[in-house]
TrEMBL record:
It comes from the Eukaryota. The keyword Ligase does not apply. The lineage of its organism: Eukaryota, Viridiplantae, Streptophyta, Embryophyta, Tracheophyta. Keywords: FAD, Flavoprotein, Membrane, Oxidoreductase, Transmembrane, Transmembrane helix. This is Ferric reductase NAD binding domain-containing protein. InterPro entries: Cyt_b245_heavy_chain, Fe_red_NAD-bd_6, FNR_nucleotide-bd, RBOH/FRE. PANTHER family: NADPH OXIDASE (PTHR11972), RESPIRATORY BURST OXIDASE HOMOLOG PROTEIN D (PTHR11972:SF197). One of its GO terms (molecular function) is NAD(P)H oxidase H2O2-forming activity. Residues 29-187 form the Ferric reductase NAD binding domain. Signal peptide: none annotated. The keyword Flavoprotein applies. GO terms for cellular component: plasma membrane. The chain crosses the membrane at residues 31-48. It comes from Eragrostis curvula.
């Protein structure tokens, strides 16, 4: 066959992987902070969808408030999630807008808090255009909070630690390596100085 080497041996093939997601163990935490930079939001969106699906099984239909079966996923501990997506271009928010709007609509209990951060000036101009549109009767309503600039990570950690005293918070990140050190140091600092 075509795979046989001239000497009758198969060619040497190297396989690298498989790789797990950056937050494959999120279910071990009561509270999760999910941070995605740019396209790094992709695995975090998958986790958010998984949280919604698990919550539906645990508590029933999140929209109607109908009860579910808590014995379905006894290993699922997550009861609250915070998602922060930081991107340069406002247009990037269109990638997952449908999913994020669906999560916001489905999550009547407020389990997942969604934050989008746009770091370019053009986003500020777009925000002013949206404000102008709303003044003229064109309004876009969403539970996804959109911010301009970069998050103050110390403030984010502080708010979460105050809201969830004595609970374990898992911090999961996907993006360029530059932010990893800051998020890790803040997690260690808040672990030492608070009960969270």
């Amino acid at each position: 066959m075509g795979l046989l080497h001239a000497a009758g041996k198969y060619p040497r093939v190297l396989i690298d992987g498989p790789y797990g997601t950056p937050a494959q163990d999120y279910k071990q935490y009561d509270i999760v902070l999910l941070v995605g930079l740019g396209i790094g939001a992709t695995p975090m969106i998958s986790i958010i969808k998984d949280i919604v699906n698990n919550m539906k099984q645990l508590y029933g239909d999140l929209e109607s408030g109908a009860g579910g079966d808590a014995s379905v996923h006894p290993s699922f501990r997550t009861r609250r999630a915070y998602f922060y997506w930081v991107t340069r271009e406002q247009g990037s928010f269109k990638w997952f807008r449908g999913v994020m709007d669906e999560v916001a609509e489905t999550d009547k209990k407020g389990v997942i808090e969604l934050h989008n951060y746009c770091t370019t000036r053009s986003a500020f101009i777009a925000m002013l255009q949206s404000l102008s549109n709303s003044m003229h009767g064109v309004v876009s309503v969403s539970r996804v909070r959109t911010h301009f600039g970069k998050p103050n990570w110390r403030d984010v950690y502080e708010r979460i630690s105050l809201n969830h005293r004595d609970q374990r918070v898992g911090v999961f990140y996907c993006g360029v390596s530059g932010l990893t050190k800051e998020l890790r140091e803040l997690a260690q600092d808040f672990s030492r100085k608070t009960s969270t």
